[in-house]
Structures
1.
Amino acid sequence: MTDPIADFLTRVRNAAKAGHKVVEIPASKLKIEMTKILVDQGYALSYKVAEDGPQGTIKIALKYDALTKQPAFRGLHRVSKPGLRQYTNVETMPRVKNGLGVAIVSTSKGVMTDKQARANNVGGEVLCYVY
């Protein structure tokens, strides 16, 4: 697999469109940190890391609107790709949907949202947008 982050986003996006309650994804440290951000920002209900096999899996409980049955997020968009990495500093940190969405950024101080990166005064690789 050449891009595990794109695979992570695609699995979550496809499960949400199909209306699944839970999605299972092969685990890695980066994917676990991205899942924590999705839960903290309210785009997913909860997650659990199962240590089965050498790699393990992440089970993410997806969140839906009670009335419309639409997913809590409207879009998951991969920004930095293996063929073209996208880096940013604090001054040029992107704002997703004028502050309504969130950008997940991999910094030297760990994986965090764009708002946390601005507060910590660090830049890094923009992994994806969630809105």
2.
Amino acid sequence: MGSKNKLKRFKENETFTNVFQPTRDELVNSNFNLKGNWQKAVFKNNNPLVLELGCGKGEYSVALAQKYPNKNFIGIDIKGARFWRGAKTAIEDEIENVAFLRTQIELIDYAFAENEVDEIWITFPDPQIKYKRTKHRMTNATFLKRYKTILKPEGVVNLKTDSEFMHGYTLGLLHGAGHEVLYANHNVYKQEGSPEEVTSIQTYYESQYLEQNKPITYIRFKIKG
């Protein structure tokens, strides 16, 4: 994407009522007034709050919002020029139960209060296969601790990925640490009984993976305290 196009999207994001872009300082110094107030201030209801981490273009967040009008969705990514697409679609189609937050996933517990979130989706994250990249894997122990803080006691995490490495790494870590695996499937489109929200919504890249016969894996789990 050309830098001109990127700048145009950044500018447009600033005008969108469904896009929130706090600075790092704002978050770290507890000056972010939406923390603990997302439902009331943004969505004007008490419906369950669901996050998609590393939402890319935001297509999954938007599709979930359309499918589940009684839940609120927030797509989170540091790349605003990407989720511009999802934010714009939501505005054009008047989908009011989805918003976008531009921040790093590492700062998630600064953007949301304790027990504020009902559910988390992690869709097709970079598996960070090299050992020295372990700290960047979005299901490592440090990240799980952050998620646990903001999730309600019964909150769940969903991991959908085309990376068998990421699937295996996460399953091993969950079992090893005594977390509760509610569902695990290494090929959701081949197995009967896969959850509908997993197979009925596909990202652009996911449909490409499927054309290449790449298995899509899925885990649903609860993080133990």
